[in-house]
Amino acid sequence: MIRFSKMADYGVLLLGHFTQNGNALVNTAGLAEQYHMPRTVVANLLKEFCKAGLLESRRGLHGGYRLLRAPDDISLLDMLSVIDGPVQLTDCAAEDIIHQCDYSDVCHSRSPMRAVNQRIVDFLGQMTLSELMNDVAPATIAPLDTSTSTTS
Amino acid sequence: MIRFSKMADYGVLLLGHFTQNGNALVNTAGLAEQYHMPRTVVANLLKEFCKAGLLESRRGLHGGYRLLRAPDDISLLDMLSVIDGPVQLTDCAAEDIIHQCDYSDVCHSRSPMRAVNQRIVDFLGQMTLSELMNDVAPATIAPLDTSTSTTS
DNA sequence: CCCAAAGAGGACTAATCCAGTGCTCTTTCC
DNA sequence: GGAAAGAGCACTGGATTAGTCCTCTTTGGG
Ligand code: FES
Ligand code: FES
């Protein structure tokens, strides 16, 4: 089954919460209780988002987290990248891979696969946190264009 | 890292090979050698594709596999489904899930997430094996449409 | 001034999943 | 009848992931 990690699910849920709280500070314990998730898991996730610059934190008594960027300036890709790392559907899908993989001599789909990967990355990058919370329908992903070359 | 399984990579590579061989029978040992993959792995993959109706097999001496459907009638989604199972980016992304997940009471992104999932499924479903072998550029994935509802 | 509440930063563990292996059975051809 | 090839499983070792735990720092309040 092709799936984001469970942590990513949690992460989206939690970040979603911050869009509903203005810029008030929200603490780990409260979130863990409200979303019935393990406290430690929530703590780890928020720490990661904080390091990645999606949230800002306030330590000490009455501390907590709040969004650092606007909900429509945070993409699904941003969130996923923090937790699941880059979208790299196949080994040689990474944009910056120059050195060929073990199968480059016999593989004829390197370039199309990279293009597929890029389409999905772009799509996830266009999907914002606000849209995720607003029940909108995502755009469709256009099929491959068999004559134009839009990627490297 | 968000990734298809390694087996899926192998699978695409192998199916790709069949597009270049007309309808000649190709056997496991030969493929394994040519693609320097473990014989057992190739065998397992081809068996799966065969069960799924993408390949047909001929047993016995001089047996082997060949494509059962035309290369432009086999989508990337077909191949991935056989090996990695359904694309279900989050637990509640499955189309047929009626019963709500553990977080449905606090989650506001169920519907958009399912739509995201569906867009990706559609995209993978449009990508054919021929296109994968022809170095074409995949279509773009259009951004979310915030007014129209194109999904359930 | 000291304590409690909260985040920071790691390391760690248990359980799950996946890639790869192995074996036996059946089919087919010569 | 024997060898080559696929069918059908069940299994294992290693990697990955979910979740835990502990200690340190920061902050505010009494
Ligand atoms: S699998 Fe790496 S070049 Fe195709
Ligand atoms: S996570 Fe299941 S309803 Fe949103």
What is the element layout, followed by pairings?
Two copies of one chain form a homodimer.
Chain A lengths: L5 H13 L9 H7 L4 H13 L3 E4 L5 E4 L8 H9 L25 H17 L2 H5 L19
Antiparallel strand pairs in A: 1-2
The structure holds FE2/S2 (inorganic) cluster (2 copies).
Chain A binds a DNA duplex (30 and 30 nucleotides) through helix 3.
Number of domains of chain A: 1
Using the alpha-carbon principal axes, give the shape of chain A: elongated
Largest interface in this structure: A-B, 66 and 65 residues
Question: What is the oligomer described by this structure?
Answer: homodimer
Q: What's the helix-strand series of chain A?
A: HHHEEHHH
CATH superfamily of chain A: Winged helix-like DNA-binding domain superfamily/Winged helix DNA-binding domain
Strand content of chain A: 5-15%
Main β-sheet description of chain A: 2 strands, antiparallel
Low-confidence stretches of chain A: 147-152
Helix/strand structural class of chain A: mainly alpha
Q: Estimate the mean pLDDT confidence of chain A.
A: 89
Radius of gyration of chain A: 19 Å
Describe the protein in words:
Two copies of one chain form a homodimer. In chain A, helix 1 crosses helix 3 (39-51) and helix 2 packs across helix 3 (39-51). Helix content of chain A is 42%, strand content 5%. The first copy, chain A, is mainly α. Chain A starts with 5 loop residues before the first helix and ends in a 19-residue tail after the last helix. Mean pLDDT of chain A is 89; it is low at 147-152. Chain A has six helices and two strands. Chain A has a two-stranded antiparallel ribbon with strand order 1-2. Chain A has one domain (6-134): Winged helix-like DNA-binding domain superfamily/Winged helix DNA-binding domain (Arc Repressor Mutant, subunit A, Orthogonal Bundle). At the A-B interface, helix 1, helix 4, helix 5 and helix 6 of A face helix 1, helix 4, helix 5 and helix 6 of B. One FE2/S2 (inorganic) cluster binds at residues 91-92, 101, 103-104, 107, 109-110 of chain B. Chain A binds a DNA duplex (30 and 30 nucleotides) through residues 5-7, 27-29, 38, 40-41, 43-44, 46-47, 50-51, 57-65.
